[in-house]
Amino acid sequence: MTPSQRLHAAGLRTTPVREAVLRILGKAGRPLSHQEIARRPGLAGVDRVTLYRTLATLQKNGLLHSVRGLDGAWRFADPPALAERCAGNHVHFLCLACNQMTCLPEQPLPWVEEPAGAEVEGKQLIVYGRCARCKTRSRRGRTHGP
């Protein structure tokens, strides 16, 4: 389904910014922060407020999945594009060096007791550390020590 078809199906007006955001996230393969989205081709000249409002509207209407990293930044993903790895109950990996977040393949999440009287709609877990690229870089950069 194209971005404009998805917007129409959700009852939203089609705008160039909404279409561009859905296109960018559909091709990304991992959750992106608003800064990463803003730097992608197709959003040149779009102000920060417009991008924030667009992300909020798309998320509110179920067109985006979001997760907040340990660094405090929200990251957004296109659920259909990441349906196999990044939907529902799942685990994210956040690199503390480059702040890149990836969805890990589906795996069981730890059992967590649900609050009394609450209805849990999903679970997410963030595993953090250094990605393979940053781990290799930090080892090469050492001049002494273990």
How much of the residues is beta strand, in percent?
15-25%
**Mean of pLDDT:** 81
In N-to-C order, the SSE pattern is HHEHHEEEEEH
Q: Compute the number of structural domains.
A: 1
The computed structural class is: alpha+beta
Side by side, the strands of the main sheet go 1-3-2
| CATH class assignment | Mainly Alpha
The name CATH uses for the topology is: Arc Repressor Mutant, subunit A
Q: Could you tell me the radius of gyration in angstroms?
A: 17 Å
Largest sheet: 3 strands, antiparallel
- Helical segment tally? 5
Shape: globular
User: Percent of residues in helical segments?
Assistant: 25-40%
According to CATH, the homologous superfamily is Winged helix-like DNA-binding domain superfamily/Winged helix DNA-binding domain
Number of E strands: 6
Ends apart, CA distance between termini: 52 Å
What does this structure look like?
The protein is built from 5 helices and 6 strands. With 146 residues, the protein is α+β, with helices and mostly antiparallel strands. It has one domain (3-113, 121-141): Orthogonal Bundle (Arc Repressor Mutant, subunit A). The longest helix is centred in the first third of the chain and has 13 residues, at 16-28. The mean pLDDT is 81.
